[in-house]
Known about the structure:
Blueprint: H1 16-23, E1 28-32, E2 38-39, E3 54-58, E4 62-71, E5 85-92, E6 99-104, E7 117-124, E8 130-136, H2 137-142
Antiparallel strand pairs: 1-2, 1-3, 4-5, 4-7, 5-6, 7-8
The chain binds zinc ion.
Zinc ion binds at residues 32, 34-35, 37, 46, 48-49, 51.
Amino acid sequence: MNQPAPPPLPDDPSTAYFWEGTRAGELRILRCRSCGFYVHMPRPVCRNCQSMDLAGEKVSGKATLYAFTETHKAFHPFFVSRVPYLLATVELAEQPHLHFLTNLVGIAEADVRIGMQLEVAFEELSPEIVIPVFRPVAAMAEGSVAS
Ligand SMILES: [Zn+2]
């Protein structure tokens, strides 16, 4: 059975830094060069100082879980074989309220706890499309991953 192709990347130069980052194994978040404030989702103006001098910058990949839900319906044929999966909002360690929408992997829904420590991992959907996902930090340390 052929797996459908993943949805294409948005044709948007303003998010190129992000996808170049994931292909390089880095999570890059837009950061203001004037005041150091991180901005996500991407927008052209810093919401802290109104500077337009923003650039993607590598972050630690550390985060805490802010909210999550288990998804049972795929929004694109590529994801049909992946449901159910965990959709999560995480708070990146770099800045309070720096929220990032992602998938939670390596843990069963029943074991998920708000506030748990997470770290980024990268999943290659195609040579062009590498998505950042988050997994529990403890799963690596203990060498056991819930499935
Ligand atoms: Zn700023």
